[in-house]
Amino acid sequence: MPALTNKSSNRSALVTGVCLGVAVLGVMGAFNSYQVSKGYSAQFPDAYGGGAAQVRFAPLIARVPENAELGYITDLDPSQPAYAPAFLAAQYAVAPRLLVTIDAKTRPEWAAGNFSKPQDFAQAGAARGYEIEADLGNGVVLFRRKSP
Prior knowledge:
Largest sheet: 5 strands, mixed
Number of domains: 2
Number of strands: 5
Radius of gyration: 27 Å
Structural class: alpha/beta
Strand content: 15-25%
Order of helices and strands: HHEHEEHEE
Strand order of the largest sheet: 2-1-3-5-4
């Protein structure tokens, strides 16, 4: 009978050792993941432009109520790869205001212009039924829906 106890204790020690090894590997993996993330964030501090958008849109959010719904006017084509990150960064910057794309059914009173290059902002707004309320610089324009 003592031989069974010896085998049982060896097996128990082996299971304990394997569990400890897995735990150590898990902790080492977590530290490695942290170091990789830290290096990535140092190399790309604002990868999606959210921080820059907050700075750019600060003058706009000071003029629009927090519960406002804003249309989105831009010079970027929705099929371009830059469109989605630009829209999402603008959406993040104007929160808690709701930023929506303008279509035949959705025409909020206010619209935020997010332009990547200088152009005739009044014409861009007029094409969607909006007029300039304020050109806030750096490609950010506040539009108001034209009265019928």
